[in-house]
Design brief:
Immunoglobulin-like, Jelly Rolls, 3 domains, five-stranded mixed beta sheet, 1 helix, about 40% strand
Length: about 450
């Protein structure tokens, strides 16, 4: 006999070079009882793992004594005691056995079921579930693999974003975004998903999936969909359900768009093939961001490739992004003295020439008034702003011998602007900075 449910689930959960433990269980019972199925429970010492499945024969025929089924155990159970308990519902048959799992080896276990209601002769061995064996409704999700019984057949699905209870987490909308746990490749399918959102650059919109990444440090994040099976659209938001929260796409880091046109939405990347999309979002501050993988029809299998690169905040191509309306934290401690105030709008004094500095940027896609404040910063510093050319002269500067500093710049035209917080007379420390626009 073979427990097809156990066999497939454990095989896919293993994922190791040495191979899993193959637990070959032979079941014997006396008497004329021929149960329709066996209920199997597996427990592991020192691990929060319990699995329950049914063993049935092909075509619903009765089970006979002497058959065997195979359970493939994850290699993480190497060296642990595994207890298998078996009952035959509708009869008094029951038994149990214990073995030690050995990674990459076959371990034999014989379990005799006792307590048959009536006597008789051994009916001989039988294969309980060969090819075409059926399963009973139910399922589970273990080690990012979902196994479920559908229409009498086992179906397995690799979970791109982990398990949620007994199934894969399905990132089909803002109620259940798929968590990006770090740099890497995330594969999943959006077939059957709804059309929950549309990016600003999308000519049409179809089935889509949404992911969520939470940054602990200032970082540049790159997303692309190279390897997907359909023509994708990518867009990133600061608020999952708010279409107006797409960020301006331009930025100063390598690979980013340098002209202030459009928001963080890309249909077909000019550097990728097959309708793949690509976004480079420079110097994002700590926080949570939502990236959608959209289609133009029914969706399908997609691949989301993610890189995360910390930024130093000590150079223009490593600048941190200011988000309108947010107060953000950083520091000049440990930074080099790379910049100083210059030009007609210079703050004068030592102009920051003896102190470490921090660099930020913001992007305007339309003409706006911008106010920048360092309220919450306690060391002596200057605050100055430059446009486009990081090494150019200041548009404005405010020195804060008694912090904070504040600048209001009227009618700034579209473009990338750099903001510098620079110490005075060697001062350095923690920064709080807020940018608003109207």
């Amino acid at each position: 006999m073979r427990a097809s449910a156990w066999h497939l689930a454990a095989l896919l959960a293993a994922g190791c070079d040495a191979g899993p433990t193959a637990l070959d269980v032979t079941v014997t019972f006396s008497g004329a009882a021929q149960p329709a199925r066996l209920a199997v429970t597996l427990r592991v010492d020192r691990a929060p793992l319990r699995m329950d499945v049914s063993v049935v024969a092909p075509d619903g025929r009765p089970l006979h004594s002497g058959g065997n089924f195979v359970v493939l155990l994850p290699d993480t159970l190497d060296g642990q005691k595994v207890t298998v308990q078996i009952t035959a519902p509708g009869t008094a048959l029951a038994g149990a056995g214990t073995v030690v799992a050995v990674r990459g080896r076959k371990v034999d276990l014989v379990i005799a079921l006792d307590g048959a209601r009536d006597g008789g002769v051994d009916l001989g061995g039988a294969d309980l579930a060969g090819d075409g064996g059926r399963c009973e409704p139910g399922g589970w999700c273990i080690e990012n693999v979902q196994t479920a019984c559908e229409a009498g057949q086992l179906r397995t699905r690799a979970c791109g974003f982990g398990c949620s209870g007994t199934t894969c987490l399905l990132p089909d909308g803002c109620g259940s975004p798929g968590d990006i746990r770090g740099p890497g490749t995330y594969r999943d399918s959006s077939l059957g998903f709804g059309n929950s959102a549309r990016g600003s650059c999308a000519p049409t919109s179809g089935a889509d999936a949404v992911t969520r990444i939470t940054l602990k440090d200032w970082s540049t994040v790159t997303f692309d969909t190279m390897g997907s099976a359909f023509d994708t659209v990518l867009f990133t938001r600061t608020e999952c359900a708010n279409a107006m929260s797409e960020l301006a796409l331009a930025g100063p880091c390598q690979g980013a768009l340098t002209t202030a046109v459009g928001t963080t939405c890309n249909d077909d990347s000019p550097t990728l093939m097959g309708g793949a999309s690509r976004l480079v979002v420079c110097g994002l501050p700590p926080g949570t961001y939502y990236t959608w993988i959209d289609s133009k029809s029914d969706g399908g299998t997609y691949q989301l490739n993610v890189t995360v690169t910390p930024v130093s905040l000590n150079a223009c191509d490593d600048a941190g992004r200011l988000l309108a309306g947010s107060t953000l934290e950083a520091t000049t401690s440990g930074h080099a003295n790379n910049y100083s105030s210059s030009g007609k709008a210079s703050c004068g004094l030592d102009a920051g020439s003896t102190s470490p500095d921090a660099v930020f940027y913001f992007v305007l896609t339309a003409t706006k008034d911008v106010t920048i404040s360092t309220k919450g910063t306690t060391f002596r510093h200057s605050l100055y702003v430059r446009s486009d050319a990081c090494g150019g002269t200041d548009l404005a500067c405010d020195i804060a011998i008694n912090p904070p500093a504040m600048l209001t710049l009227k009618k700034l035209t579209p473009g990338i602007y750099f903001v510098f917080v620079d110490g005075v007379a060697g001062d350095r420390g923690a920064i709080a900075i807020t940018m608003t626009e109207k």
